[in-house]
UniProtKB/TrEMBL annotation:
The keyword 4Fe-4S does not apply. Gene3D superfamilies: Intergrase catalytic core. Keywords: DNA recombination. One of its GO terms (biological process) is DNA recombination. It comes from Ignisphaera aggregans. Residues 165-355 form the Tyr recombinase domain. It comes from the Archaea. This is Site-specific integrase. One of its GO terms (molecular function) is DNA binding.
Amino acid sequence: DPNTFIKVLVSAVADPQLKPILVEFVKNRLAAEIFAETTRYTVTKQDLEEFKEWLERQVRIREKSPGATEGVSRDTASKHWKYLNELLAYLGYSFTLQRLEDLADELVDEFRYAKARHMLKAFRKFVKVVIRKRNRTLASQILEVVKVPKDRSKEIPLMQRIMLGYERAPTIDEIRKVAEVITNIGAKLAFVMLAETGLRPVEVFNLTMEQVDLENRLIKPLHISKTKRAYISFVSKQLHRFIVEEYLPWRDWFLEQYQYAVNNIGRDVEKWRAKFIPLSEDHIRAEIRLAMEKTGIRFELYKLRSFFISWMILERKVPGEVVAAFTGQASLAQVETILRHYFGGSVEKLREFYDENAPKILQ
């Protein structure tokens, strides 16, 4: 009952003996979510209309003085509007500072370098024109985090950048140290899965129970976009043990504890329950960020993808086309060809190969 809950909170705040317990609970159990939500920005229709009007004014300024540097050309304005809307749709028109931390790498990997630059330029302009008026501090934080990539090596696909030494990934020891201090079991699972599979964060965060076959330790992300695909990956034996012995009991508890709250805020409870990890992306990112702050080890979550590729290619000497099949950088036809050529069409042999070569974070 929400009313009873509020009464208990009020009593705890007023009670000198209970107040320290409440503060400690909030700090340890809710700090990550609170931290994430304080930097959330949700784009409104008014925001978009204001930005479009600003673009139109800039075009008029340029057209009055064609040789001047003030304003923007109609072509530039059109690109800003197009790419901003594409990016906002990609983000779901709502984001936190943590969500934006590895956005540049994510967009380069997902849409290629040139388009990623267009999207980020438009987004930064939107932040300066619109968000800065609403929240100057948040706008400054976003502009500090979201940069337009200038490194021309980013034009080279991720795997080639790693092979040429242009991409620095965290070490397995650094990843293990961070994983060890993540206290939230769901966030810990997400972090380890990212490191051990090389999947994109969006793929792991959006996995459903149907896409994870624990009996066969098989992950079927089924993520398909215009430029990327990811069809198959696996769960290591160590991670499988963690999931069965620690995560699934915790997940049952979590669903039971929060189902009432999820229903009360109008979310689709069945869709929420169907998620393999029923935490919000922002909550997962915030929990991992707290762990990184404890260890003093900081890197973007997308770097876990670089780590997996680097480990497989440089440490284990796995052929690039096989790594591409694991990480969704090959087409479906290419994946089927690789499976036949290297593993006789056997998923079981592919899993054995994964067990032998993939990094193991949990010890």
